[in-house]
Design a protein that fits this description.
The complex is a heterodimer of chains A (135) and B (120). Chain A has 135 residues and is an alpha+beta fold. Chain A has one domain: 2-Layer Sandwich (Heat Shock Protein 90), CATH 3.30.565.10. Chain A is built from 4 helices and 5 strands, in the order βααββααββ. Chain B is α/β, with parallel strands linked by helices. Chain B has one domain: STAS domain (Transcription Regulator spoIIAA). Chain B has a 5-stranded mixed β-sheet, with helices on both faces. Classes of the chains: A alpha+beta (135), B alpha/beta (120). At the A-B interface, helix 1, helix 2 and helix 4 of A face helix 2 and helix 3 of B.
């Protein structure tokens, strides 16, 4: 089992680093190139949200295995101690963004992955966990 | 790293490398908007064949770039969006509205030439 990969997110260069590591991990696990692109794009968007809203945070990449089917998956955890999201339901609706025109927001990211979980406390921070299973 | 801009007759061509940080993309946008006037170019081709991830930022900057170039009186074509990238963009909800796209450099050049002729 591989160790978790941690990427600190603070600058635009970190966004590139995080998505490249996600793509390499997907390639190492024999994900298709299309799946790897979806994972890398989701990571890029999550990292971008960290830079835009929280200024800094981290992306964790984990390899997980589904017990029943022994399928491999990649879990991406985006964590920050930023302002948090006041209304999570609203943030998950299409067309909602508080940082202006940038960032397509969370609904887009949700469509790229198989599982999506968000935990956010106002003024404390946000943890978004997404999973993509290998087909 | 600065993204080089080439000139072929009246068209400027910028080829993006695989991993472009945001700042380089912003610099390219500024450089192309200035260069299109300085060199009296009529068209701009941005080749994204090597790009493996197009997220909301990248797509917004390309859209802005195309609109700015149009305000300067020239046309922009984005060429070489990879199939997987196109798939991810649509899933994410990115559209590149009102921006011309073409399969590759050759098709992009053909598109611009048709455009120039129709304006002549």
């Amino acid at each position: 089992m591989q160790d978790d990969i941690q990427v600190l997110i603070q600058t635009d260069q970190d966004i590139v680093t995080a998505r490249q590591k996600g793509r390499s991990l997907a390639a190492a696990l024999n994900f298709s190139s299309g799946e790897a692109t979806l994972i890398a794009t989701a990571i890029s968007e999550l990292a971008r949200n960290i830079v835009a809203y929280a200024k800094k945070g981290e992306i964790l990449l984990k390899v997980i295995i589904n017990g029943g089917s022994a399928r491999h998956g990649i879990q991406v955890v985006a964590r920050d101690d930023g302002p948090g999201i006041a209304d999570v339901d609203q943030a998950l609706r299409d067309g909602f963004s508080t940082s202006g025109s940038l960032g397509i927001g969370l609904p887009g990211v949700r469509r790229l992955v198989d599982e999506f979980h968000i935990d956010s406390v106002e003024n404390r921070g946000t943890v978004i966990t997404v999973t993509k299973w290998k087909t | 790293m600065e993204i080089p801009i080439l000139k072929q007759s009246s068209v400027l061509i910028a080829t993006l490398q695989a991993a472009v940080p945001d700042l380089d993309l912003l610099r390219l946008r500024t450089a192309l908007v200035q260069e299109v006037v300085r060199s009296r170019s009529r068209g701009v081709i941005v080749d994204v064949t090597a790009i493996d991830v197009m997220d909301s930022f990248g797509s917004h900057i390309l859209q802005d770039l195309a609109h700015m170039i149009r305000l300067r009186g020239a046309e922009t074509v984005i060429v070489g969006i990879q199939p997987e990238v196109a798939f991810a963009m649509v899933q994410l909800g990115l559209r590149l509205e009102n921006v011309a796209t073409a399969l590759d450099l050759e098709e992009g050049m053909a598109y611009l030439n048709r455009k120039f002729r129709s304006l002549a």
